[in-house]
């Protein structure tokens, strides 16, 4: 048992329903399955957010090119654009996690 302060002996929690330690192969398979599921969720979230975000930012860009818009609308478009830029940065970080090149 690990007695270092601030660490946890993870192997103590890897037991079956009878309290018996799980075989290492089972632990490794479970970890691989969890990693695969995490990767799948990240890829799906990435795609589901990037597509509508690109559409939204494209429309904002078109509207920003219009002349004679009320000041209140221009301010709203700038706010939407800033929020979209922050989401784009978040997606860039997600790209790194997923291991996909940034679009």
Can you describe this structure?
The chain has a single domain (10-98), classed as Helix Hairpins, CATH 1.10.287. Helix content is 67%, strand content 0%. It is built from two helices and no strands. It has helices at residues 24-64, 71-98. Helix 1 packs antiparallel against helix 2 (71-98). The model is unreliable at 1-9 (pLDDT under 50).
CATH architecture: Orthogonal Bundle
Summarize the helix and strand pattern as letters. HH
> How much of the polypeptide forms β-strand, as a percent range?
under 5%
Q: Which percent bin holds the helix content?
A: 55-70%
- Overall pLDDT metric: 81
CATH hierarchy, class:
Mainly Alpha
CATH overall fold name: Helix Hairpins
Number of domain units: 1
The major sheet is characterized as:
none
Low-confidence stretches: 1-9
What is the CA–CA distance across the termini?
47 Å
Number of helices: 2
Silhouette: rod-shaped
| Gyration radius from CA atoms, angstroms | 23 Å
SS class? mainly alpha
Would you report the number of β strands? 0
């Amino acid at each position: 048992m690990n007695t270092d302060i601030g660490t946890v002996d993870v192997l103590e929690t890897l037991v079956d329903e009878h309290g018996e330690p799980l075989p290492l192969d089972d632990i490794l398979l479970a970890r691989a399955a969890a990693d695969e599921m995490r990767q799948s969720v990240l890829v799906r979230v990435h795609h589901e957010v990037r597509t509508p975000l690109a559409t939204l930012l494209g429309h904002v860009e078109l509207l920003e090119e219009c002349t004679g818009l009320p000041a209140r609308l221009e301010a709203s478009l700038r706010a939407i654009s800033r929020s979209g830029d922050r989401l784009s940065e978040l997606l860039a970080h997600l790209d790194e996690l997923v291991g996909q090149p940034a679009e």
